[in-house]
Every structure is written in structure tokens, then in C-alpha cells.
Design a protein that fits this description.
Layout (H helix, E strand, L loop, with lengths): L3 E5 L4 H15 L4 E7 L5 H7 L2 E4 L4 E4 L4 H18 L4 E7 L7 H17 L4 E5 L9 H16 L5 E5 L16 E4 L2 H12 L4 E2 L4 E2 L1 H5 L1 H8 L8 E6 L2
Parallel strand pairs: 1-2, 1-6, 2-5, 6-7
Antiparallel strand pairs: 3-4, 7-11, 8-11, 9-10
Helix pairs in contact: 1-6, 3-6, 4-5
Bound molecules: zinc ion (ZN) (2 copies).
One zinc ion binds next to loops.
Length: 242
Amino acid sequence: MVATVFYSPHQDDEALGMAGAIREAVETGREVYLVLISNGSPSAALLDRYNSTFFCALCNQQHSFRYSAQQLVEARLMEFRASSAALGIRHVEEMLLDERQAGEEGFIWSIKNKILEYESALPGASHRLVSGRKDFVLNPAHLASTTAAEQAQKEASGKLDLQMYRIYEYRKRFRQGNGCAKITTLTNQQWDYKRIALNQYLRFKPEEGRLAFGLHSVPDLFGLILGWKGKENRREFLDFLR
Ligand SMILES: [Zn+2]
Ligand SMILES: [Zn+2]
């Protein structure tokens, strides 16, 4: 049976946008691989925002974080590892490319080579990435993964099976999935796993190194998917890259 390789630009993309697809691949008995692309190192602006004093409605308390970039990177990694373990993925690779170089050529080149490397080790594999260009919001690391996938497809003369998941699609309250190639709806079992994976990004226990970084980065996405103000969204949105 062909293998499936998922590539997550950040710690949380695998849970937000592809957890159902990951579970589907695991359930059908495929060998499932997950590659974490960036180290998630925060920009100076993001670090400043985190370390300002603010009241957080999510944790219902005042935060006065004083975390270094390195501490945040470690906290994000813990979330990612807990999430991928919850999803039952046996093969996890952490590339840990420097997030701050996401727009640069070397960053894209490394992802492209990684796709081709997996393709040559697992011929005919299904490669699932996170959509950049076609998504609702443009994010540098997501864009880099799309560019890399396009370059890999070109080098492979169009023979790769490349599927791109839209992460920010949940923000479109109406016409969700408009224009994407396929919308899947998770089964109850897949949804249970996705919820557990997402929950790994909500844990705030500083004494254990858990800082709920995912939650604080994109609270609206977690809320829209988990249904904090209404119904949960069990769908996933994908495009094919030919
Ligand atoms: Zn991301
Ligand atoms: Zn908080």
C-alpha cells in the first residue's frame, strides 16, 4: 500500500487542517509520515506581543509572559509531539528550519528536496502539504511549502501525488470551501482524534513547559473548529497540485 507523507509548516497545522486526513490514512493501514518543516521561532514583533501584559479571555487571567524565543520554540515542539502522538503517527521527522527565513530560497529548497527525498524512498507516495497561495490568508511558511511543492512537481515532471490543505478556510464563515477541489467531513472517530490533537495546543501549564502557544497564536481557528460559539466544524478543505 502506498505511503502518505504529511508536511506541517508549523506546530499546529497538522492538527488544525489535516488531522482527519491523517487519521483516515492511519485507519486504512497506510504507512503515515509527518514532517514538521519550521522550528516556529517567533518574529521579534510576535515575541513582543506575547511578552506584553494583557488580560487573556481564553485563560481568564492576566498574562505577563517573559519567555525567550527559545522557550517558546520548545513549548511549541512539546505541543506538536503530543499532537502527533495523539494522532498515532509513528514516523515523525522534525526539519526545524528557521521560521524567520521562511521567505528565503534556501528554506524553499530544503522543503522541495525533502518532498523528492520521500518520493524516492517511497515511490508513488501521497504527499499532503498545507496550502499557501490558494488559502484565505497568506502565511510565509505556508507559501514556501506551496512553492516548494510546485518546484518538486516540476522536477518530477508532474508525476507526484500532491494535495494541499487549506488551514485558514475556517475563517470564512460563509461559502466555506468555495473553489477548493474537495471538502471532506470527518467520521465520529476521526473527529475524536482531531479534537484530542487540537487539545494539545490548549494546555496551559507553565510548570510543565506547556504554554498553550497554539491557542494564543490563532484562538479564532481553534474556536471555529472546536465550536466554542456554536457548532464544531468537522470539515477539511483541499486542493490538488498538478
Ligand atoms: Zn501554519
Ligand atoms: Zn491565555
